[in-house]
Design brief:
Blueprint: H1 11-20, H2 22-25, E1 36-37, H3 39-46, H4 48-56, H5 65-80, E2 95-104, E3 109-118, E4 123-128, H6 137-154, E5 160-164, E6 171-175, H7 178-197, H8 207-211
Parallel strand pairs: 1-3, 4-5
Antiparallel strand pairs: 2-3, 3-4, 5-6
Bound molecules: iron/sulfur cluster.
């Protein structure tokens, strides 16, 4: 059975609402070291020092052009999914949420998943990716983190999630297994520990990664 999608808000609106919320006023929000944003998991996978610069040094950098391209792509995908059905995911039916804010005290992280599909017995995270080369560790760990948040919010299992790329036929089905869950929790603990101690972490970034990193000017040992 094909089903049309209902849309529930945008990421920007949700972030705006978050800023106005009582928990934001008490500091238990985006900048808390107790509950960290999911996107830091991606950054940590690239290089732990990026998280250090972003969260503890508040170094502002010029956004590279691909960041704006990514935001435009997300908005385009969001609008396209208003019209698409779930057959692409091989799912018969399900309620669809877009830009859903999720937060867990127990897991110690929060984030806004691009899309979530709730079926009668399961819930699935969907992330829109600009690149078609998306089966990377940082992508599936981010997806796993959202799946874990969804499981808690909906009290349903999340056996797998989806990474979609450019074009109708780019779809990666990612199994949300025990190993990925443990890896997410390990990284979250490592980030929290680094934020609490405030010590610049070592980096295993390659020369190629450093060359295209926006923080290269702050890493004297990498120049
Ligand atoms: S320049 Fe290299 S070591 Fe420094 S933050 Fe960037 S990726 Fe990490």
């Amino acid at each position: 059975m094909e089903r049309k999608i209902s849309v529930t808000g945008t990421k920007q609106k949700l972030y705006d609402n978050l800023k106005k919320s009582p928990e934001a006023k008490t500091g238990d929000s985006v900048k808390s070291t107790n509950i960290i944003p999911v996107h830091l998991i991606r950054q940590w996978c690239y290089c732990p020092r990026v998280v250090y610069y972003m969260e503890l040094n508040y170094i502002s950098i010029n956004q590279p052009s691909w960041v704006q391209q990514g935001e435009d792509f997300h908005e385009k995908e969001r609008l396209l999914w208003k019209r698409r059905n779930l057959s692409r995911f091989n799912l018969d039916d399900g309620k669809v949420y877009q830009n859903l804010f999720l937060k867990s005290e127990k897991l110690s992280f929060h984030g806004i998943v691009d899309m979530a599909i709730e079926s009668s017995d399961a819930v699935y995270a969907v992330e829109f990716k600009l690149s078609n080369k998306i089966a990377k560790r940082k992508d599936w760990l981010q997806l796993t983190a959202y799946a874990m948040l969804l499981e808690e919010k909906f009290s349903k299992t999340s056996p797998f999630g989806f990474l979609t790329g450019k074009g109708q036929h780019v779809l990666h089905k990612i199994k949300i297994d025990k190993q990925k869950r443990q890896e997410v929790l390990r990284i979250v603990n490592a980030i929290k520990s680094m934020l609490e101690k405030g010590i610049k972490p070592d980096s295993s970034a390659t020369a190629v990664q450093c060359c295209i990193c926006e923080y290269i000017n702050f890493c004297n040992d990498r120049m």
